[in-house]
Amino acid sequence: MEGLPPEALEQVAAYFQALSEPTRLQILNLLRSGERSVGELAQLCGYTSANISRHLAFLTQQGLVERESRGTSGYYRIVDPNVYALCDLVCGNIARQLERRASGRAVFARTAPAAPKARARRT
């Protein structure tokens, strides 16, 4: 990104904005196995077709998916599968961060004195 003019950085930010919404990530994940109709995506995501269509329009605008009309249905597919490499890279980074945090907490768990056990009440 070094040396990019502000207009180009705005395009990069818009691309990442498309990936910043969990429903859109869910849609992209579902499209990983192949094209799907809006109705299929809506059913699998648990949202209305109108909601999914809105997200698909944004993903189309950013060049991540493309639409093909067949009769009265619209079918979507991934334009550039490299988006999955980017998502996998981010997921791997998050997993490593969580592992580091967990191992840091584990050190304290080994050195902390055991909590006293609660005594059972007699009735």
From TrEMBL:
UniProt cross-references to SUPFAM superfamilies, sorted A to Z: Winged helix' DNA-binding domain (SSF46785)
One Pfam entry name: HTH_5
Signal peptide: none
PROSITE patterns per record: HTH_ARSR_2
Domain HTH arsR-type positions: 4-98
Domain of life: Bacteria
Transmembrane segments: none
InterPro entries hit by this protein: ArsR-like_HTH, HTH_ArsR_DNA-bd_dom, Metal_resp_trans_reg, WH-like_DNA-bd_sf, WH_DNA-bd_sf
Keywords for the protein's UniProt record, in alphabetical order: DNA-binding, Transcription, Transcription regulation
Record has Chaperone as a keyword: no
PANTHER family named among the record's database cross-references: ARSENICAL RESISTANCE OPERON REPRESSOR ARSR-RELATED, ARSR FAMILY TRANSCRIPTIONAL REGULATORY PROTEIN
Record-given protein name: Helix-turn-helix transcriptional regulator
